[in-house]
Amino acid sequence: MLKIIIRDERSYNLKVYQDTILLLLNENLISDEESYSLQVVLEKWKILAEEKKAEDLFLNQIGDIPEEFLDPLMNHVMKEPVLLPTSGIIIDHMTILKHLMVDLTDPFNRKPLTKEMLQPQNELKERIKMYFDEKRKEFQGGL
Predict the structure, then answer these.
(1) How far apart are CA 133 and CA 81, in angstroms?
(2) pTM of the prediction?
(3) What value does the mean pLDDT take over residues 47-56?
(4) Which of 56, 64, 94, 89 is nearest to 78 (CA)?
């Protein structure tokens, strides 16, 4: 869940969360124990944010990424590609789940669509993984 929040750059801002904890503490709205628990979560977020930053740097340095590996709506590398059976489009699972929370239609043709209808594309997922594993080897070998 934390990774999802961090990837959504529109809603993730570490400073906002830190300031919120301070406000809650200063106003005695949370206990020290609750504050500690929230601080633990923030530390995990910091680590995940650094990992995301390193991944973004890697993606910027490898150059062109095959079009078939990119989500057609968000233009990011798909982690869990799924087929939308109503349009035949392959999209990242998280992208379509976010869409389905608001609208139970295929975003490409507006036909009814549910998460149960999504078809995992395991072969494509494996090709994406192999591609990036190879690029990481090349990248690390060049350092």
Answers:
(1) 17
(2) 0.69
(3) 84
(4) 94
